[in-house]
Amino acid sequence: MDSKGKNHCSPDVLSNLPDNVIDDILMRVPFRDAVCTSILSKKWRYKWCGLPQLMLDSDFWKPKKDIEYLTGDKTVWRATKDLTGNFTACIHNLMTRHKGSITNFTLCIQYWKICPRIDNLLCFLSEKGIQHLVLRLPRSFELPSSFFTCLQLRHLSLQNCLLLPPPTFKGFDRLISLELHDVKVSSKLLECLISHCLLLEQLVLKISDTLSDIIEINAPMLRYFDFKGDMTTICLKYVPLLAKLSLWYYRKDRKKFDVANFLTSDFLESCFALEHLHLDYTVNARGQEIPTKLPFDLMCVKHLCMCIYLDKEEILSALCLIRSFPFLRYLEIQMEYNIMNDMLALECLEVEAFPDVISKHLREVKLVEANGSMREMQLIKLLLAKTPALVRMLIKPHRYLEKSAIVKRLAELTKFEIASPKAEVLLKLV
């Protein structure tokens, strides 16, 4: 047999791939490309119709010329210059062709001017047993009542939605993770929604609007909480397992956060399992006395990350927290530049003002966006002198400063007293 005959008789590698290999390939490529595999062979033609995970993201809706999406009966979906106009047709084809369950579904159309009807889609997903749902929709889109029938949900992420559940809705009692980004919802409803998620382990709230009432967070299984918004509107009422907490104070009116009240309150008192804390805020505590410690110690905190402007109140707030975490091991401070901090030292930051050790177990300190200002140097000097277990201090200069200038200013570090015999100070210039 000649070489041409051998080629003709060679097996079809694509058609002979095991089903599990084909499924794995389809799961790893964008959904748009997965549908395109229908043209490869008869064996591949129906495969995309059984995918349990579908992602209709921004790339899916981008028009591509001369591309055909073939379904099992050779129906063609043609990409056009304005694919967004074919949303209804695309969803209809998906609903009529898909076989089997759909456990994960993502729809990203947040940049569209108008949101198409998705009532039938959500009904379809509910019937398919949807467990992981991501909806990025045009701003303030009111979710239809069919959304509240997806009671099998375990992971839910919403953006730019308006939540108005029917009176009969009792909550998603199977949820493990919940993410709400700029979702319009009343304080009472949000509090009720969280309290009914008894299995909730991860909670992310990004709320740009100031809520009218305080939200009490009651979540017995919650382990991770990331909040961006007005910190005065939340209360960590019962979070016995919370291990990671990220708080980013944000208000549209740019009103500063009253850190003095925060430090003297019981905001963190129920977080006795807390290990990682990230804080990002600007303070409004001028003329108020910053406490040296919280009213209680948090024994489990090992990792503290803060973003501060090196104002007097913010520095003292950071020191207050450090001393309230007796077993703190890692400290990261991101410096925000303030021209006044480059000229004025602070008497309250002198080493002599701190007769006792600040932290007995702190081993690593990372200072980000350092610029070598007077207050910054004071803080570095204080930490080196009052942390006897320190192993490493890593200083990363501000990205816009000349390296030669920052090296010259930080050269003074060699003159500072270092309490720990094992400590090394490193300058990361890259």
TrEMBL record:
It comes from the Eukaryota. Residues 11-64 form the F-box domain. PANTHER family: F-BOX DOMAIN-CONTAINING PROTEIN, F-BOX PROTEIN-LIKE. This is F-box domain-containing protein. It comes from Capsicum annuum.
